[in-house]
Amino acid sequence: MTARLNLAALTAEELQALLGENAAQAKWPDLSRARLEQRPLPGPEVPRDFRAEPQEERVWGATPEQARQLGALDAELRAAGAAPVGVYYLPAAASARHVRAYEWPPDTALSVRWSETPDSPRLRGPHLELLTWLRDRASGAAAVVTSSQPGVPAPAFHESVDVHLRPGQSAAELLAAHRQAVSRHGRGQKLAAGDGWAGAWSALHALNVSAWERRDLLLDVPEESPAGLHRPPPPT
Which domain of life is it from (predicted)? Predict the structure, then answer.
């Protein structure tokens, strides 16, 4: 099932990270009216389930320079012990929708994310995201995420996720920082055999959805019939 983000319930920081500074400023009049009238303001679609579409292997990159960066990152991550899982497309992501997935034993699901749209105004170099679920949650954290992305997650992750943003760091620096962050909470939970990468990110998405629902961030999208007509709501 798909929902839409309620822009009226986002913080200013989340709105800017999601839309970009100029688009966020353009939305402020509509946002102010919606908040004043205590009504939602529908935004981008968000799936309630994690979606990652497998892609065929090829030379990826929107530009020759980006292709070079992806190749260098791949070599560096493999040398550090990360095992490649495949390339995926995230259809509902706001940006950087392509992902090269890795599993970094024994407990970390690692993603290299980038955009394949060369004329995108938000095109940046590839960034890394690392996720480890914790075995013991006595510290109050359920998982640790370390990312080199330049902006905050939008919407914000569940409060039990310990998020570390380290823009501009190299892969080696990010890997070391993530291991250190996990060790402060105890031990990571080993990745499941077979679907470790997808399972870890799917579980994180489910946890985040629960937080977004609690904040009234998600608006249900009516289902459509094959002819494109809205179906009537089911009887209550």
Answer: Bacteria
CA 193 to chain centroid: 22
Rg (CA), the chain: 19
Pairing status of strand 83-89 against strand 98-104: antiparallel
Strand ranges, E, within the chain: 2-6, 42-47, 53-55, 83-89, 98-104, 108-114, 127-133, 143-147, 161-165, 218-220
Rounded distance, CA 187 to CA 107, Å?
A: 9
Phi-psi sector, 140: left (phi>0), alpha (psi -120 to 50), beta: left
Pairing of strands 218-220, 83-89: unpaired
* The total number of residues written for the chain in this structure: 236
Please enumerate in sequence order all residues whose Cβ is within 8 A of that of 62, keeping only pairs 6 or more positions apart, or say none.
114, 115, 116, 117, 118, 120, 123
Residue in 78, 110, 136 with CA at minimum distance from that of residue 200: 110
With vertex at residue 167, the alpha carbon angle to CA 88 and CA 130, rounded to the nearest 5 degrees, is: 45
pLDDT in tens, 89-126: 998 887 889 999 999 999 999 999 999 986 554 546 79
Three-state DSSP class for residue 70: helix
In the predicted structure, residue 48 carries a pLDDT above the cut 50: yes
pLDDT digits (tens, 9 = 90+) for 21-33: 888 899 999 999 9
Quick one: DSSP state of residue 235? P
Instruction: Indicate whether this model's pTM tops 0.85.
Output: yes
